[in-house]
Structure to design on (144 residues):
C-alpha cells in the first residue's frame, strides 16, 4: 500500500471551512488564497479526497439523525395538514402521505419479485381519490 501523505495545514483549514464556515466555496478559496485549479488538484489527491468524502458522509449521517429524531413530529404535522382549510395544502399533504406510504410499502424495487411490486398509481386515479377525500371532508364539515 503506498504511503498516503498527510494533509497540509492549508488543506485541513480549507476542508474545515468547507464544512463549518458559512462561506461560499469561492469565498473560502479567496480566504485561503487558493484558486479553483489548486482545489481541483487537491480533490484528485487520495488523501484530500478521502478526508473530503469522510466529511461528506459524516454530514449526511448527522442530517439523517436530525430527520430521524424529528420524523414523528413531521409525520404528525403532515397528517394535521391533511385537514387544512386550504384545499391546496390539504391536497398536497394527502399526496405526501400517499407517497410516503407507497415508499414504505415498496422499500427496494430491485429486491421484490415482479408479482409483489405495487402498480403505479395513474394520475387520474390519484386525482379521483383526492377529490373523493376532499368531498368527504367537505360534507363532514358541513354536517351533511
Amino acid at each position: 500500500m503506498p504511503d498516503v501523505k498527510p494533509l497540509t495545514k492549508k488543506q485541513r483549514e480549507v476542508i474545515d471551512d468547507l464544512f463549518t464556515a458559512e462561506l461560499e466555496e469561492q469565498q473560502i478559496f479567496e480566504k485561503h488564497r487558493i484558486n479553483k485549479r489548486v482545489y481541483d488538484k487537491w480533490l484528485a489527491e487520495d488523501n484530500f479526497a478521502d478526508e473530503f468524502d469522510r466529511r461528506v458522509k459524516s454530514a449526511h449521517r448527522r442530517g439523517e439523525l436530525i430527520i430521524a429524531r424529528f420524523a414523528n413530529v413531521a409525520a404528525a404535522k403532515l397528517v394535521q395538514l391533511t385537514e387544512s382549510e386550504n384545499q391546496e395544502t390539504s391536497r398536497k399533504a394527502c399526496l405526501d402521505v400517499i407517497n410516503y406510504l407507497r415508499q414504505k410499502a415498496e422499500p427496494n424495487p430491485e429486491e421484490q419479485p415482479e408479482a409483489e411490486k405495487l402498480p403505479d398509481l395513474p394520475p387520474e386515479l390519484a386525482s379521483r381519490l383526492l377529490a373523493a377525500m376532499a368531498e368527504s371532508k367537505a360534507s363532514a364539515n358541513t354536517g351533511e
Remarks:
- The two ends are 76 Å apart (CA to CA).
- Residues 89 and 103 are 21 Å apart (CA to CA).
- The chain has two domains: 9-69, 71-142.
- The mean pLDDT is 85.
